[in-house]
Amino acid sequence: MSTAAAAVKPDDGVTGGNPPANVETPPEAANHVNDANKAKAEELKSQANEHFKNKDNDKAIQLYTEAIELDGSNAILYANRSFAYLRQEAFGYALNDAVQAIKCNPNYLKGYYRRAGAHMALGKYKLALADLELVAKRCPNDKDAQLKYTECNKIVKKMAFERAIAVDKQEKSLLEMCRDLESATIESDYEGPKLEEGKVTLEFMKHLMEWYKNEKKLHKNFAYRILCDVEALFKKQPSLVDITVPDECKFTVCGDIHGQFYDLLNIFEINGLPSETNPYLFNGDFVDRGSFSVECIFTLFGFKLLYPNHFFLSRGNHESVNMNQMYGFTGEVVAKYSQTMSEMFTIVYNWLPLCHCINQKVLVMHGGLFSTSGVSLDDLRAIDRNRQPPEQGLMCELLWSDPQPQNGLAPSKRGVGVHFGPDVTKEFLEHNKLDYIIRSHEVKDDGYEVAHDGKCITVFSAPNYCDTMGNLGAFINMKGNDLTPQYKTYAAVPHPKVKPMAYASSLSFLA
Protein backbone atom coordinates (compact mmCIF):
# COMPACT_ATOMS: atom_id res chain seq x y z
CA MET A 1 0.00 0.00 0.00
CA SER A 2 1.23 3.49 -0.78
CA THR A 3 0.50 6.17 1.76
CA ALA A 4 1.66 8.73 -0.78
CA ALA A 5 -1.40 7.72 -2.73
CA ALA A 6 -3.38 8.08 0.45
CA ALA A 7 -2.50 11.77 0.55
CA VAL A 8 -3.89 12.61 -2.87
CA LYS A 9 -6.82 10.30 -3.66
CA PRO A 10 -9.41 8.09 -2.01
CA ASP A 11 -8.67 4.39 -1.65
CA ASP A 12 -9.57 2.10 -4.52
CA GLY A 13 -9.59 -0.91 -2.23
CA VAL A 14 -5.95 -1.89 -1.72
CA THR A 15 -5.00 -2.66 1.87
CA GLY A 16 -1.81 -3.81 3.53
CA GLY A 17 0.39 -3.79 6.59
CA ASN A 18 0.08 -5.55 9.92
CA PRO A 19 -2.02 -4.55 12.93
CA PRO A 20 -0.16 -2.49 15.56
CA ALA A 21 0.78 -4.10 18.83
CA ASN A 22 -1.91 -4.47 21.49
CA VAL A 23 -4.79 -3.95 19.07
CA GLU A 24 -7.32 -6.74 18.90
CA THR A 25 -9.09 -7.43 15.65
CA PRO A 26 -12.86 -7.11 16.23
CA PRO A 27 -15.24 -9.92 15.29
CA GLU A 28 -15.65 -10.30 11.56
CA ALA A 29 -18.75 -8.20 11.05
CA ALA A 30 -18.44 -8.60 7.30
CA ASN A 31 -20.05 -12.03 7.58
CA HIS A 32 -23.32 -10.26 8.37
CA VAL A 33 -23.32 -8.25 5.12
CA ASN A 34 -24.82 -10.08 2.15
CA ASP A 35 -23.13 -10.18 -1.23
CA ALA A 36 -25.72 -7.95 -2.89
CA ASN A 37 -25.17 -5.18 -0.35
CA LYS A 38 -21.41 -5.51 -0.66
CA ALA A 39 -21.63 -5.21 -4.43
CA LYS A 40 -23.91 -2.16 -4.23
CA ALA A 41 -21.59 -0.55 -1.64
CA GLU A 42 -18.63 -1.05 -3.99
CA GLU A 43 -20.57 0.55 -6.81
CA LEU A 44 -21.43 3.55 -4.64
CA LYS A 45 -17.81 3.82 -3.50
CA SER A 46 -16.62 4.01 -7.11
CA GLN A 47 -19.12 6.77 -7.83
CA ALA A 48 -18.11 8.62 -4.67
CA ASN A 49 -14.43 8.37 -5.63
CA GLU A 50 -15.16 10.07 -8.94
CA HIS A 51 -16.99 12.91 -7.23
CA PHE A 52 -14.10 13.22 -4.77
CA LYS A 53 -11.59 13.48 -7.63
CA ASN A 54 -13.76 16.21 -9.15
CA LYS A 55 -13.73 18.13 -5.81
CA ASP A 56 -17.46 17.55 -5.23
CA ASN A 57 -17.01 16.63 -1.60
CA ASP A 58 -20.68 16.97 -0.62
CA LYS A 59 -21.77 14.43 -3.20
CA ALA A 60 -18.85 12.15 -2.37
CA ILE A 61 -19.79 12.19 1.32
CA GLN A 62 -23.42 11.44 0.49
CA LEU A 63 -22.44 8.40 -1.59
CA TYR A 64 -19.88 7.12 0.92
CA THR A 65 -22.59 7.39 3.57
CA GLU A 66 -25.03 5.38 1.47
CA ALA A 67 -22.33 2.75 0.95
CA ILE A 68 -21.61 2.60 4.68
CA GLU A 69 -25.30 2.01 5.37
CA LEU A 70 -25.04 -1.07 3.17
CA ASP A 71 -21.64 -2.27 4.40
CA GLY A 72 -20.72 -0.78 7.75
CA SER A 73 -17.74 -3.09 8.20
CA ASN A 74 -15.74 -1.68 5.27
CA ALA A 75 -12.77 0.32 6.59
CA ILE A 76 -12.08 1.86 3.19
CA LEU A 77 -15.45 3.58 3.10
CA TYR A 78 -14.86 5.25 6.46
CA ALA A 79 -11.32 6.30 5.52
CA ASN A 80 -12.44 7.77 2.20
CA ARG A 81 -15.29 9.67 3.83
CA SER A 82 -12.81 10.86 6.47
CA PHE A 83 -10.65 12.36 3.72
CA ALA A 84 -13.65 14.15 2.21
CA TYR A 85 -14.52 15.56 5.63
CA LEU A 86 -10.94 16.76 6.05
CA ARG A 87 -11.31 18.77 2.86
CA GLN A 88 -14.39 20.43 4.33
CA GLU A 89 -12.60 21.22 7.61
CA ALA A 90 -15.06 18.89 9.36
CA PHE A 91 -12.19 17.63 11.47
CA GLY A 92 -14.37 16.09 14.16
CA TYR A 93 -16.29 13.97 11.65
CA ALA A 94 -13.02 13.09 9.91
CA LEU A 95 -11.55 11.88 13.19
CA ASN A 96 -14.61 9.78 14.02
CA ASP A 97 -14.49 8.09 10.62
CA ALA A 98 -10.76 7.40 10.88
CA VAL A 99 -11.28 5.79 14.28
CA GLN A 100 -14.10 3.68 12.85
CA ALA A 101 -11.91 2.58 9.93
CA ILE A 102 -9.28 1.35 12.38
CA LYS A 103 -11.91 -0.49 14.41
CA CYS A 104 -13.15 -2.20 11.26
CA ASN A 105 -9.67 -3.24 10.19
CA PRO A 106 -6.65 -2.63 12.45
CA ASN A 107 -4.46 -3.80 9.53
CA TYR A 108 -5.55 -0.87 7.38
CA LEU A 109 -2.82 1.74 7.48
CA LYS A 110 -4.78 4.46 5.73
CA GLY A 111 -7.05 4.54 8.75
CA TYR A 112 -4.08 5.63 10.86
CA TYR A 113 -3.02 8.05 8.16
CA ARG A 114 -6.44 9.68 8.14
CA ARG A 115 -6.53 9.81 11.94
CA ALA A 116 -3.15 11.54 11.88
CA GLY A 117 -4.52 14.11 9.42
CA ALA A 118 -7.48 14.88 11.66
CA HIS A 119 -5.34 15.12 14.79
CA MET A 120 -2.89 17.37 12.94
CA ALA A 121 -5.66 19.71 11.82
CA LEU A 122 -6.86 19.94 15.43
CA GLY A 123 -3.36 20.78 16.65
CA LYS A 124 -2.92 17.45 18.46
CA TYR A 125 0.59 16.84 17.18
CA LYS A 126 1.63 14.14 19.65
CA LEU A 127 -1.36 11.99 18.78
CA ALA A 128 -0.71 12.55 15.07
CA LEU A 129 2.94 11.62 15.53
CA ALA A 130 2.07 8.24 17.02
CA ASP A 131 0.00 7.33 13.96
CA LEU A 132 2.54 8.71 11.50
CA GLU A 133 5.31 6.76 13.21
CA LEU A 134 3.33 3.55 12.80
CA VAL A 135 2.71 4.24 9.10
CA ALA A 136 6.33 5.25 8.49
CA LYS A 137 7.64 2.06 10.08
CA ARG A 138 5.31 -0.11 8.03
CA CYS A 139 6.09 1.77 4.80
CA PRO A 140 9.84 2.52 4.97
CA ASN A 141 10.06 3.21 1.22
CA ASP A 142 7.13 5.62 1.09
CA LYS A 143 8.64 9.11 0.74
CA ASP A 144 5.44 10.95 1.62
CA ALA A 145 4.90 8.94 4.79
CA GLN A 146 8.53 9.46 5.84
CA LEU A 147 8.35 13.20 5.14
CA LYS A 148 5.18 13.70 7.16
CA TYR A 149 6.55 11.69 10.07
CA THR A 150 9.81 13.68 10.03
CA GLU A 151 8.04 17.04 9.85
CA CYS A 152 5.58 16.18 12.61
CA ASN A 153 8.42 14.91 14.80
CA LYS A 154 10.21 18.24 14.33
CA ILE A 155 7.11 20.15 15.41
CA VAL A 156 6.63 18.03 18.54
CA LYS A 157 10.29 18.45 19.53
CA LYS A 158 10.19 22.19 18.82
CA MET A 159 7.07 22.61 20.97
CA ALA A 160 8.69 20.66 23.81
CA PHE A 161 11.82 22.80 23.60
CA GLU A 162 9.83 26.03 23.59
CA ARG A 163 7.90 24.91 26.67
CA ALA A 164 11.14 24.03 28.42
CA ILE A 165 12.67 27.47 27.89
CA ALA A 166 9.46 29.49 28.26
CA VAL A 167 10.09 30.28 31.93
CA ASP A 168 13.45 31.89 31.26
CA LYS A 169 12.70 33.34 27.84
CA GLN A 170 11.88 37.03 27.67
CA GLU A 171 9.86 37.58 24.50
CA LYS A 172 10.59 40.71 22.51
CA SER A 173 7.66 43.01 21.91
CA LEU A 174 6.59 43.54 18.33
CA LEU A 175 7.86 47.11 18.57
CA GLU A 176 11.32 45.83 19.55
CA MET A 177 11.27 43.33 16.70
CA CYS A 178 10.28 46.09 14.31
CA ARG A 179 13.13 48.34 15.48
CA ASP A 180 15.60 45.53 14.90
CA LEU A 181 14.42 45.10 11.32
CA GLU A 182 13.23 48.41 9.91
CA SER A 183 16.72 49.85 9.60
CA ALA A 184 17.27 47.83 6.43
CA THR A 185 18.17 49.97 3.45
CA ILE A 186 15.48 50.68 0.87
CA GLU A 187 17.01 49.86 -2.49
CA SER A 188 17.34 52.76 -4.90
CA ASP A 189 15.50 50.87 -7.63
CA TYR A 190 12.42 50.20 -5.46
CA GLU A 191 9.47 51.90 -7.17
CA GLY A 192 6.72 50.50 -5.00
CA PRO A 193 4.42 52.21 -2.49
CA LYS A 194 6.07 54.10 0.37
CA LEU A 195 4.62 55.29 3.64
CA GLU A 196 4.48 59.06 3.96
CA GLU A 197 6.32 60.08 7.12
CA GLY A 198 5.69 56.56 8.36
CA LYS A 199 1.92 56.78 7.83
CA VAL A 200 -0.59 55.07 5.54
CA THR A 201 -2.36 57.42 3.13
CA LEU A 202 -5.06 56.87 0.51
CA GLU A 203 -2.47 57.29 -2.22
CA PHE A 204 -0.32 54.64 -0.55
CA MET A 205 -3.27 52.22 -0.48
CA LYS A 206 -4.14 52.80 -4.13
CA HIS A 207 -0.52 52.31 -5.14
CA LEU A 208 -0.27 49.21 -2.91
CA MET A 209 -3.29 47.50 -4.48
CA GLU A 210 -2.03 48.21 -8.01
CA TRP A 211 1.46 47.05 -7.02
CA TYR A 212 0.06 43.80 -5.64
CA LYS A 213 -2.18 43.37 -8.66
CA ASN A 214 0.99 43.29 -10.76
CA GLU A 215 2.44 40.56 -8.48
CA LYS A 216 5.03 42.78 -6.83
CA LYS A 217 6.06 42.86 -3.17
CA LEU A 218 5.80 45.67 -0.62
CA HIS A 219 9.21 46.54 0.79
CA LYS A 220 9.83 44.83 4.10
CA ASN A 221 10.49 48.09 5.94
CA PHE A 222 6.95 49.28 5.25
CA ALA A 223 5.49 45.84 5.91
CA TYR A 224 7.12 45.75 9.35
CA ARG A 225 5.87 49.26 10.15
CA ILE A 226 2.29 48.37 9.19
CA LEU A 227 2.39 45.32 11.47
CA CYS A 228 3.79 47.34 14.36
CA ASP A 229 1.26 50.15 13.99
CA VAL A 230 -1.78 47.92 13.53
CA GLU A 231 -0.87 45.88 16.60
CA ALA A 232 -0.76 49.07 18.66
CA LEU A 233 -4.20 49.97 17.31
CA PHE A 234 -5.76 46.54 18.01
CA LYS A 235 -4.36 46.49 21.55
CA LYS A 236 -6.49 49.53 22.36
CA GLN A 237 -9.70 47.84 21.26
CA PRO A 238 -11.93 45.62 23.40
CA SER A 239 -12.76 42.01 22.53
CA LEU A 240 -16.25 43.16 21.49
CA VAL A 241 -16.17 46.39 19.47
CA ASP A 242 -19.34 48.51 19.33
CA ILE A 243 -19.99 50.15 15.96
CA THR A 244 -22.35 53.07 15.42
CA VAL A 245 -23.74 53.48 11.90
CA PRO A 246 -25.59 56.80 11.45
CA ASP A 247 -29.06 56.94 9.90
CA GLU A 248 -29.10 56.59 6.09
CA CYS A 249 -25.40 55.65 6.07
CA LYS A 250 -24.38 52.41 4.37
CA PHE A 251 -22.39 49.75 6.18
CA THR A 252 -20.89 46.62 4.57
CA VAL A 253 -20.13 43.25 6.16
CA CYS A 254 -17.88 40.80 4.31
CA GLY A 255 -17.13 37.19 5.19
CA ASP A 256 -14.13 34.94 4.59
CA ILE A 257 -11.59 36.14 2.01
CA HIS A 258 -9.05 33.30 2.41
CA GLY A 259 -6.18 34.80 0.50
CA GLN A 260 -8.19 35.49 -2.69
CA PHE A 261 -6.72 38.93 -3.31
CA TYR A 262 -8.17 39.51 -6.77
CA ASP A 263 -11.66 38.77 -5.47
CA LEU A 264 -11.01 41.25 -2.64
CA LEU A 265 -10.20 43.89 -5.25
CA ASN A 266 -13.44 42.98 -7.00
CA ILE A 267 -15.42 43.67 -3.81
CA PHE A 268 -13.95 47.16 -3.74
CA GLU A 269 -14.71 47.57 -7.45
CA ILE A 270 -18.36 46.60 -6.92
CA ASN A 271 -18.99 48.27 -3.57
CA GLY A 272 -16.48 51.14 -3.56
CA LEU A 273 -13.21 51.64 -1.77
CA PRO A 274 -13.33 51.87 2.03
CA SER A 275 -13.69 55.42 3.31
CA GLU A 276 -15.22 57.33 6.18
CA THR A 277 -18.48 57.35 4.22
CA ASN A 278 -18.16 53.73 3.03
CA PRO A 279 -17.24 51.69 6.13
CA TYR A 280 -16.55 47.94 6.12
CA LEU A 281 -16.32 45.01 8.51
CA PHE A 282 -14.37 41.94 7.38
CA ASN A 283 -15.41 38.99 9.48
CA GLY A 284 -12.30 36.81 9.83
CA ASP A 285 -10.39 34.21 7.82
CA PHE A 286 -8.48 36.76 5.78
CA VAL A 287 -5.70 34.27 5.02
CA ASP A 288 -4.88 30.59 4.29
CA ARG A 289 -5.79 28.32 1.38
CA GLY A 290 -5.65 31.12 -1.18
CA SER A 291 -2.06 31.87 -2.18
CA PHE A 292 -2.32 35.68 -2.12
CA SER A 293 -2.85 35.91 1.63
CA VAL A 294 0.05 38.31 2.20
CA GLU A 295 -1.49 40.73 -0.29
CA CYS A 296 -4.91 40.40 1.36
CA ILE A 297 -3.74 40.97 4.91
CA PHE A 298 -1.55 43.99 4.20
CA THR A 299 -4.37 45.56 2.19
CA LEU A 300 -6.81 45.02 5.06
CA PHE A 301 -4.34 46.19 7.70
CA GLY A 302 -3.52 49.25 5.59
CA PHE A 303 -7.17 50.29 5.42
CA LYS A 304 -7.53 49.68 9.15
CA LEU A 305 -4.71 52.15 9.79
CA LEU A 306 -6.11 54.63 7.29
CA TYR A 307 -9.68 54.51 8.65
CA PRO A 308 -9.42 53.14 12.21
CA ASN A 309 -13.00 54.12 13.10
CA HIS A 310 -14.60 53.10 9.81
CA PHE A 311 -12.84 49.85 8.88
CA PHE A 312 -13.17 46.83 11.16
CA LEU A 313 -11.59 43.38 11.32
CA SER A 314 -12.74 40.36 13.36
CA ARG A 315 -10.57 37.37 14.16
CA GLY A 316 -11.39 34.08 12.45
CA ASN A 317 -10.31 30.57 13.31
CA HIS A 318 -7.65 30.84 10.58
CA GLU A 319 -5.94 33.75 12.31
CA SER A 320 -4.04 31.23 14.43
CA VAL A 321 -0.70 29.45 14.43
CA ASN A 322 -1.97 25.95 13.80
CA MET A 323 -4.21 26.87 10.86
CA ASN A 324 -1.52 29.12 9.36
CA GLN A 325 1.10 26.38 9.52
CA MET A 326 -1.21 23.84 7.92
CA TYR A 327 -3.03 25.83 5.25
CA GLY A 328 -0.40 28.07 3.73
CA PHE A 329 -0.14 31.48 5.35
CA THR A 330 3.03 30.76 7.35
CA GLY A 331 4.70 29.23 4.31
CA GLU A 332 3.69 32.19 2.17
CA VAL A 333 5.02 34.77 4.64
CA VAL A 334 8.32 32.89 4.97
CA ALA A 335 8.62 32.60 1.18
CA LYS A 336 7.84 36.28 0.58
CA TYR A 337 9.49 37.74 3.70
CA SER A 338 10.86 35.79 6.67
CA GLN A 339 10.15 33.47 9.59
CA THR A 340 10.44 36.50 11.87
CA MET A 341 7.57 38.20 10.07
CA SER A 342 5.38 35.10 10.48
CA GLU A 343 6.00 35.33 14.23
CA MET A 344 5.04 39.00 14.12
CA PHE A 345 1.72 38.10 12.49
CA THR A 346 1.03 35.69 15.33
CA ILE A 347 1.45 38.53 17.84
CA VAL A 348 -0.86 40.81 15.83
CA TYR A 349 -3.56 38.17 15.34
CA ASN A 350 -3.73 37.59 19.08
CA TRP A 351 -4.99 41.17 19.44
CA LEU A 352 -7.70 41.07 16.76
CA PRO A 353 -11.17 41.78 18.23
CA LEU A 354 -13.42 38.73 18.44
CA CYS A 355 -16.78 40.25 17.52
CA HIS A 356 -18.60 43.49 16.72
CA CYS A 357 -22.03 44.85 17.64
CA ILE A 358 -23.71 47.19 15.15
CA ASN A 359 -26.02 49.83 16.63
CA GLN A 360 -26.58 47.60 19.67
CA LYS A 361 -28.81 45.37 17.49
CA VAL A 362 -26.67 43.10 15.27
CA LEU A 363 -23.85 40.94 16.62
CA VAL A 364 -21.20 39.85 14.12
CA MET A 365 -18.72 37.05 14.87
CA HIS A 366 -16.79 34.62 12.69
CA GLY A 367 -18.14 31.31 14.02
CA GLY A 368 -21.22 31.33 16.17
CA LEU A 369 -22.95 30.92 19.51
CA PHE A 370 -22.29 29.05 22.69
CA SER A 371 -22.64 25.77 24.55
CA THR A 372 -23.91 27.59 27.64
CA SER A 373 -27.05 29.73 27.99
CA GLY A 374 -27.22 33.19 29.47
CA VAL A 375 -24.10 34.55 27.76
CA SER A 376 -24.19 38.35 27.74
CA LEU A 377 -22.42 40.93 25.63
CA ASP A 378 -20.52 41.95 28.75
CA ASP A 379 -19.23 38.37 28.98
CA LEU A 380 -17.86 38.76 25.47
CA ARG A 381 -16.30 42.12 26.29
CA ALA A 382 -14.53 40.51 29.24
CA ILE A 383 -12.77 37.80 27.20
CA ASP A 384 -8.98 37.88 27.52
CA ARG A 385 -8.23 37.33 23.84
CA ASN A 386 -4.45 37.83 23.70
CA ARG A 387 -3.72 34.16 23.09
CA GLN A 388 -4.05 31.30 20.67
CA PRO A 389 -7.66 30.11 20.44
CA PRO A 390 -8.46 27.64 23.23
CA GLU A 391 -10.22 24.31 22.61
CA GLN A 392 -13.36 25.30 24.53
CA GLY A 393 -15.13 28.29 26.05
CA LEU A 394 -16.55 31.54 24.69
CA MET A 395 -13.54 32.56 22.59
CA CYS A 396 -13.33 29.13 20.99
CA GLU A 397 -17.03 29.06 20.16
CA LEU A 398 -17.04 32.60 18.73
CA LEU A 399 -14.43 31.41 16.22
CA TRP A 400 -15.55 27.83 15.50
CA SER A 401 -19.28 27.16 16.09
CA ASP A 402 -21.84 26.56 13.32
CA PRO A 403 -25.66 26.73 13.16
CA GLN A 404 -27.82 23.64 12.68
CA PRO A 405 -31.47 23.47 11.52
CA GLN A 406 -32.79 21.47 14.51
CA ASN A 407 -33.23 22.87 18.01
CA GLY A 408 -30.67 22.35 20.74
CA LEU A 409 -26.92 21.81 20.76
CA ALA A 410 -24.79 19.09 19.18
CA PRO A 411 -21.09 18.25 18.94
CA SER A 412 -19.40 20.13 16.11
CA LYS A 413 -18.48 18.41 12.88
CA ARG A 414 -15.22 20.34 13.16
CA GLY A 415 -14.22 18.76 16.45
CA VAL A 416 -14.09 22.25 18.00
CA GLY A 417 -16.98 24.53 19.01
CA VAL A 418 -20.63 23.42 18.85
CA HIS A 419 -23.61 23.21 16.54
CA PHE A 420 -26.42 25.47 17.77
CA GLY A 421 -30.08 25.42 16.80
CA PRO A 422 -32.77 28.09 16.24
CA ASP A 423 -33.85 27.95 19.88
CA VAL A 424 -30.30 28.75 21.01
CA THR A 425 -30.17 31.73 18.65
CA LYS A 426 -33.60 32.95 19.81
CA GLU A 427 -32.66 32.73 23.50
CA PHE A 428 -29.35 34.55 22.97
CA LEU A 429 -30.96 37.37 20.98
CA GLU A 430 -33.76 37.87 23.50
CA HIS A 431 -31.35 37.82 26.42
CA ASN A 432 -29.21 40.53 24.82
CA LYS A 433 -31.99 42.54 23.09
CA LEU A 434 -30.51 41.92 19.64
CA ASP A 435 -32.25 41.59 16.27
CA TYR A 436 -30.05 38.98 14.58
CA ILE A 437 -26.50 37.67 14.23
CA ILE A 438 -24.16 37.60 11.23
CA ARG A 439 -21.44 34.98 11.01
CA SER A 440 -19.19 33.52 8.30
CA HIS A 441 -16.98 30.41 8.54
CA GLU A 442 -18.86 28.23 5.99
CA VAL A 443 -18.81 28.26 2.20
CA LYS A 444 -22.31 28.73 0.74
CA ASP A 445 -23.34 28.18 -2.88
CA ASP A 446 -24.93 31.64 -3.11
CA GLY A 447 -22.32 33.33 -0.92
CA TYR A 448 -24.80 33.68 1.92
CA GLU A 449 -27.51 31.78 3.77
CA VAL A 450 -30.37 32.93 5.98
CA ALA A 451 -31.30 30.47 8.76
CA HIS A 452 -33.07 30.30 12.13
CA ASP A 453 -36.14 32.24 11.01
CA GLY A 454 -33.99 35.00 9.56
CA LYS A 455 -32.08 35.49 12.81
CA CYS A 456 -28.80 33.78 11.82
CA ILE A 457 -27.12 34.92 8.61
CA THR A 458 -23.97 33.40 7.09
CA VAL A 459 -21.90 35.47 4.65
CA PHE A 460 -18.92 34.07 2.73
CA SER A 461 -16.94 36.35 0.43
CA ALA A 462 -14.48 34.01 -1.33
CA PRO A 463 -16.12 32.98 -4.65
CA ASN A 464 -15.11 29.69 -6.27
CA TYR A 465 -13.39 28.84 -3.00
CA CYS A 466 -10.00 27.19 -3.55
CA ASP A 467 -10.66 27.39 -7.32
CA THR A 468 -12.87 24.30 -7.01
CA MET A 469 -16.16 24.95 -5.19
CA GLY A 470 -17.98 26.96 -7.87
CA ASN A 471 -19.78 29.07 -5.25
CA LEU A 472 -20.63 32.74 -5.51
CA GLY A 473 -19.21 35.24 -3.07
CA ALA A 474 -21.38 37.73 -1.21
CA PHE A 475 -21.35 40.73 1.07
CA ILE A 476 -24.11 42.43 3.09
CA ASN A 477 -25.15 46.08 2.94
CA MET A 478 -27.33 47.73 5.57
CA LYS A 479 -28.22 51.26 6.66
CA GLY A 480 -28.00 52.67 10.16
CA ASN A 481 -31.68 53.43 10.53
CA ASP A 482 -32.75 50.22 8.75
CA LEU A 483 -30.58 47.25 9.63
CA THR A 484 -32.37 45.02 7.13
CA PRO A 485 -29.61 43.09 5.31
CA GLN A 486 -29.28 43.51 1.55
CA TYR A 487 -27.20 40.87 -0.23
CA LYS A 488 -24.85 41.41 -3.15
CA THR A 489 -23.44 38.34 -4.87
CA TYR A 490 -20.65 38.04 -7.42
CA ALA A 491 -18.60 35.42 -9.26
CA ALA A 492 -14.87 34.84 -9.05
CA VAL A 493 -12.51 36.89 -11.20
CA PRO A 494 -9.33 35.64 -12.91
CA HIS A 495 -6.09 35.55 -10.95
CA PRO A 496 -2.46 34.71 -11.79
CA LYS A 497 -1.66 31.03 -12.24
CA VAL A 498 -0.74 30.30 -8.64
CA LYS A 499 -2.78 27.43 -7.22
CA PRO A 500 -4.50 27.56 -3.83
CA MET A 501 -2.50 25.89 -1.06
CA ALA A 502 0.72 26.59 -3.00
CA TYR A 503 2.50 27.36 0.29
CA ALA A 504 0.70 24.79 2.45
CA SER A 505 2.62 22.59 4.85
CA SER A 506 3.59 19.10 3.74
CA LEU A 507 1.58 18.08 6.80
CA SER A 508 -1.71 19.47 5.51
CA PHE A 509 -2.72 16.09 4.01
CA LEU A 510 -4.70 18.13 1.50
CA ALA A 511 -2.13 19.94 -0.63
3D architecture notes:
By secondary structure, this protein is of the alpha/beta class. The protein has two domains: 34-165, Alpha Horseshoe (Serine Threonine Protein Phosphatase 5, Tetratricopeptide repeat), CATH 1.25.40; 175-490, 4-Layer Sandwich (Purple Acid Phosphatase, chain A, domain 2). It is built from 19 helices and 14 strands. Strands 1-5-6-10-12-11 form a six-stranded mixed sheet. A hairpin with a 2-residue loop joins strand 13 (473-479) and strand 14. The longest helix has 23 residues, at 143-165. The chain is globular and about 75 Å long. Residues 1-8 and 14-30 have low confidence and may be disordered.
Topology (SSEs and partners):
Blueprint: H1 3-8, H2 35-53, H3 57-70, H4 75-87, H5 91-104, H6 109-121, H7 125-138, H8 143-165, H9 174-181, H10 202-213, H11 220-235, E1 240-243, E2 250-254, H12 261-271, E3 280-282, H13 293-306, E4 311-313, H14 321-327, H15 329-336, H16 339-349, E5 355-358, E6 362-365, H17 377-381, H18 394-400, E7 402-403, E8 409-411, E9 418-420, H19 422-432, E10 436-439, E11 448-451, E12 456-459, E13 473-479, E14 482-490
Parallel strand pairs: 1-5, 2-3, 3-4, 6-10, 7-9, 10-12
Antiparallel strand pairs: 2-13, 5-6, 8-9, 11-12, 13-14
